[in-house]
Design brief:
This protein has about 80 residues and is α+β, with helices and mostly antiparallel strands. The protein is built from three helices and two strands.
Length: about 80
């Protein structure tokens, strides 16, 4: 497959749990070559179930990301 078909050129949030044993942090190596506009957050002490373990933190990161991109709207995420 041509490399151009594998690349993502949109702003992309990447939130990675550093204690994930299913998807270890080493999988991030080289990702920025294919996703040059990614915004990476590494979360220490989180596992594969980060969304369930730290939902407020994930929502906050996504809100910050949406506020940072042109046309983004953090109003799409509602924290209750």
């Amino acid at each position: 497959m041509p490399r151009a078909r594998l690349e993502v050129h949109l702003p992309t949030p990447v939130i990675w749990a550093t204690d994930d044993t299913a998807l270890p942090p080493a999988l991030l190596d080289g990702l920025s070559d294919f996703v040059p506009r990614m915004s990476l957050r590494r979360v220490d002490g989180a596992t594969h179930w980060i969304v369930h373990e730290q939902p407020e933190r994930i929502a906050r990161y996504l809100q910050e990301f949406l506020r940072s991109v042109p046309g983004g709207s953090a109003d799409l995420l509602l924290i209750r």
